[in-house]
Amino acid sequence: MGNALFYHLTRSNAETLVPQLLGKALSAGWRVELRGATATRMEALDAGLWQAEGFLPHGLAGGPHDARQPVLLRAADAPPAANTPDCLMALDGTEVAPEEAQALSRVCIIFDGNDSMAVDRARDQWRALTGGGVPAEYWSEAGGRWEKKR
């Protein structure tokens, strides 16, 4: 069982952080599910990842080669990720159950600290995951760089 890392965005957005986290996960040899609230959101992230600096191999869920994708972008209401992920990156307050997190090497909860509803949702997720026995870490960029907080 891995741990859950909560990323509190206050200076940047998910589109900036996600490629960095994906690069680290791929370097660790992990397959990744990137989960967002809607298919439209995932399509926008897909387009951004293809335009980003460096190459991050990925695909949108629903394609013929989903099981072979190192990174699979999936809307929360789509069928489960077929790429057998080691790491789940959750955006937009998408649900991550403690049982699901326990089966993974890592879960990343990425939320907008400038949106009070997103902060409340992240707090609820923290309580649910830690209450379910998942170790968690909180990371903030409020000081101008990413720092682990206690």
Describe the structure.
With 150 residues, the chain is of the alpha/beta class. Helices cover 32% and strands 25% of the residues. β5 (87-90), α3 and β6 form a beta-alpha-beta unit. The mean pLDDT is 94.
Topology:
Blueprint: E1 3-9, H1 14-27, E2 32-36, H2 39-51, E3 59-60, E4 71-75, E5 87-90, H3 98-102, E6 106-112, H4 116-131, E7 136-140, E8 147-149
Parallel strand pairs: 1-6, 1-7, 2-4, 2-5, 3-4, 5-6
Antiparallel strand pairs: 7-8
Key phrases:
alpha/beta, 4 helices, 150 residues
Q: What is the helix content?
A: 25-40%
Portion in beta strands: 25-35%
Uncertain spans, ≥5 residues at pLDDT below 50? none
Largest sheet: 8 strands, mixed
Give a brief outline of the structure.
This protein is α/β, with parallel strands linked by helices. It is built from 4 helices and 8 strands, in the order E-H-E-H-E-E-E-H-E-H-E-E.
